[in-house]
Predict the 3D structure of the following.
Amino acid sequence: MKKVLLTLFIALFTLTGCMGQPEAKKTGERPDWILNPNQNGKSGAVGVAARTYDQKVSTKRTLAITRALDELSLQQGVKVELNLNKQETVVNDRSNTVLDAQSSYQSSSTVSAHIEDVWEDKITGELYIWMVLD
């Protein structure tokens, strides 16, 4: 009798657990501008940011905006240079990693843009920001 009750409890727990999971979003729910940021005569770019180290929405938003602006700058002929230096040290079976990132931009003009739209994928937590040139 205990085995039957245990089996029923496990089956019921499994079914209710599966019912609570969100459904995968259909491709039609994702905005068109994500794959085609140049629409309606507008030159644009999309910046994407997943969950960040501090889990703050403001950090994720800033990262997505920066990535979109970087893409717009590249489209306008701005030279972007990024150097990453990674140094790993192991002492007495303890490792230490230092990552140094340096970037530089060379431009003869200023890129002026605004946020056209924002969309967040509720399943992955990725934030998409569509920026368009003014």
